[in-house]
Amino acid sequence: MRRLVVTASGGPFRGRSRDELREVSPEQALAHPNYAMGRVITTNSATLVNKGLEVIEAHLLFDIPFERIDVVVHPQQWIHSMVEFHDGSTIAQMGPPRMLVPIALGLSWPERLADIDEPCDWTRAQTWDFHPLDDEAFPAVRLARQVGTAGGTYPAVYNAANEVCVAAFHDGTIGFLDIVDTVARVVEAHDGSPVESVEHVLAADAWARAHATALIQLD
């Protein structure tokens, strides 16, 4: 295997520049084109924090270096991930742009349940698009690679600070761009260390939430 490719829908703000994201509203952030996932996860899809967490998960689950995990924007979301091999071939995991099949497979593994969703109709003309990720407008994935590479308690801090910032965004306390910007400030302030226990992770989580809250209040 040469690399993994994780696809992102791009969320409701796909194609927008950083400047165009400054004044977006919580209601706009929740208007995902494909999925209804609740406030936190839908907002994470808009910032691409969700994709940053998936990159960390892929690294941990499959023991693949971060430099061999790519993120590509695929608005139709029929292709969920791909595995590229050394001979130049690629195998894609395809399925309906819904979470029914992944949830069912998680519950029934290693078996596959019948008729969970409708497969793609290959007799119908259709076009699928792929675009490079805009790291300037959506820096969450780049930041996730940073915290994932640092390891230890950094990923827990990234996640916890984001949850606080998402709540503040929906409360009207901070803007959309402030979500990831504040998470980055919390990560920068964190004195990470190897994970020694669950309690150690929970302490880092609590610290990140408190520090993110303090930064938001100061601003």
Automatic annotation (TrEMBL):
One GO term of the biological process aspect: isopentenyl diphosphate biosynthetic process, methylerythritol 4-phosphate pathway involved in terpenoid biosynthetic process
Region of interest (Disordered), ranges: 1-20
EC number: 1.1.1.267
Top-level taxon in the UniProt lineage: Bacteria
A GO molecular function held by the record: manganese ion binding
Protein keywords: Isomerase, Metal-binding, Oxidoreductase
Cofactor(s), by name: Mn(2+); Mg(2+)
1-deoxy-D-xylulose 5-phosphate reductoisomerase C-terminal domain sequence ranges: 2-62
Pathway: Isoprenoid biosynthesis; isopentenyl diphosphate biosynthesis via DXP pathway; isopentenyl diphosphate from 1-deoxy-D-xylulose 5-phosphate: step 1/6
Catalytic activity line of the entry: 2-C-methyl-D-erythritol 4-phosphate + NADP(+) = 1-deoxy-D-xylulose 5-phosphate + NADPH + H(+)
DXP reductoisomerase C-terminal domain location: 94-210
Pfam families xref list: DXP_redisom_C, DXPR_C
Keyword RNA-binding in annotation: no
Keyword Ion transport appears in the UniProt entry: no
Record InterPro entries: DXP_reductoisomerase (IPR003821), DXP_reductoisomerase_C (IPR013644), DXPR_C (IPR026877), DXPR_C_sf (IPR036169)
Stored PANTHER family: 1-DEOXY-D-XYLULOSE 5-PHOSPHATE REDUCTOISOMERASE, 1-DEOXY-D-XYLULOSE 5-PHOSPHATE REDUCTOISOMERASE, CHLOROPLASTIC
Entry's family note: Belongs to the DXR family.
Record-given protein name: 1-deoxy-D-xylulose-5-phosphate reductoisomerase
Species in which this protein is naturally found: Nostocoides australiense Ben110
